[in-house]
Amino acid sequence: MKMTTLIACSSILLSSIAFAQSPPTDPPQGRPAGAGQGGPGRQGGPGAGGQGQGGGGQGQGAPSGAQLAQRLMQADANGDGKLSIEELPPQFAEIFPTIDTNKDGFLEESEILVLASSQGEARGGPRGGRGGAGGAPQNFEGAMKQVNRGFKGLKDSAFDATTKTKDLEQIQNVQAGLVAAKGMSSSVRMAPQAKAKYGDDNAKYLMDMRMQLLAALTTSLELESAVLAGNSAAAKAAVAKLDASEDKGHTEFQPDEDEKPAAPVAKPAAPAGAK
Ligand code: HEM
Questions:
Q1: Do residue 141 and residue 113 come from a single domain?
Q2: CA 110 to centroid of ligand 1, rounded, Å
Q3: Could you say which of 122, 149, 178 is where a domain stops?
Q4: Which residues line ligand 1 (CB under 6 A)?
Q5: Ligand 1 atom 2: the closest Cα is on which residue?
Q6: If you average pLDDT over residues 183-206, what whole number do you get?
Q7: How many angstroms is it from 227 CA to the middle of ligand 1?
Q8: Most buried of 133, 175, 214, 254, CB within 10 angstroms?
Q9: Which pLDDT score is estimated for 116?
Q10: How far does the centroid of ligand 1 lie from the alpha carbon of residue 250, in Å?
Q11: Rounded to the nearest whole angstrom, what is the distance from the C-alpha of residue 145 to the centroid of ligand 1?
Q12: Which atom of ligand 1 is nearest to the CA of 210?
């Protein structure tokens, strides 16, 4: 898909958030053109499956790609797990075929996720390595930040029925970040302690780093199984194991802060109205 198309799709998708937050109650034909654009939205409205909003997206800035996809999927009036063109507001007519990548005449959640993640890029989200909300990280550091965002939310989780949805979302972040990091590990400059251990054996260095990222990923899968099974003791044990994995990985491979090139100093934002 061309980037311009992506950006156009993304902006329509963004403008449809209000629609997505407020699932349709009218027959689709009755909805006026442009419904969802700038409409007030029904914050806090119960909506279909409203309590499962991932426990944190609403009213806290941009929703993640997964949250956005979940919200759009609330338009699934007949509950068949996919969106037909009739279930969507009219402004989707033009971009529907573009999002429907498998051309089956329906939008599945996975197809919306692909588009939603491109929305981070369209807004300049991942620039500088940070995975935008739902956007794919662009470098190893950005991937690690994504792992960290997910892991922070898991460290103090009670792993009970009330945290399950949120836990699964955070686990998704950890896994996505670890997979991305694994794919970009060859770009990590050898830290001094790694240089001392591996010398010029770059291949061995990369294999060992990949192995440790894989071990962390495996633990995150165990964690997911424990959460899905409602086994909070096993979930907490997996978090402790992941914590140890982080320590080991960082001790062996992470350069010290002062080893890194200095980050550019950000200029303070000019006060509103100042020239
Ligand atoms: C739960 C697991 C982990 C968490 C939460 C985590 C978190 C982080 C964070 C926050 C950073 C700093 C990113 C920045 O520069 O702002 C980082 C960097 C790094 N992490 Fe992890 N990490 C985890 C696991 C691992 C593992 C298993 C490895 C194994 C190789 C690893 C290797 C690295 C390396 C090499 C860096 C330095 C990247 C660079 O400066 O270019 N991490 N990690």
A1: no
A2: 28
A3: 122
A4: 140-141, 144-145, 147-148, 151, 188, 209, 212-213, 216, 242, 245-246, 249-250, 253-255
A5: 246
A6: 93
A7: 24
A8: 133
A9: 66
A10: 6
A11: 7
A12: 30
Amino acid letter for position 132: G
Residue 31 clears pLDDT 60, i.e. is over it: no
Establish if 13 belongs to a structural domain.
yes
Q: At CB < 8 A and 24+ separation, what contacts does 257-263 make?
A: 259/191, 259/192
Range of the domain at 218: 137-258
220 CA closest ligand 1 atom index: 1
Clarify whether residues 27 and 109 are in a common domain: yes
Segment 73-109, tens digit of pLDDT: 888 888 888 889 898 888 788 888 888 877 889 888 7
Q: Structurally, how many domains does the chain consist of?
A: 2
Section 39-52 average pLDDT: 36
At 4 the pLDDT is 46
131 sits in the region (left: phi over 0; alpha: psi -120 to 50; else beta) called beta
Domain boundary among 66, 89, 122: 122
Nearest-angstrom CA–CA distance, 152 and 274: 38
Do 17 and 80 share a domain, yes or no? yes
Average pLDDT over residues 17-27: 49
Does 75 share its domain with 168?
Answer: no
pLDDT band for 128, please (50, 70, 90 cuts): very low
Q: How confident is the model at residue 143 (pLDDT cuts 50, 70, 90)?
A: very high
Give a yes or no: residue 132 inside a domain: no
Do 98 and 141 fall within a single domain?
no
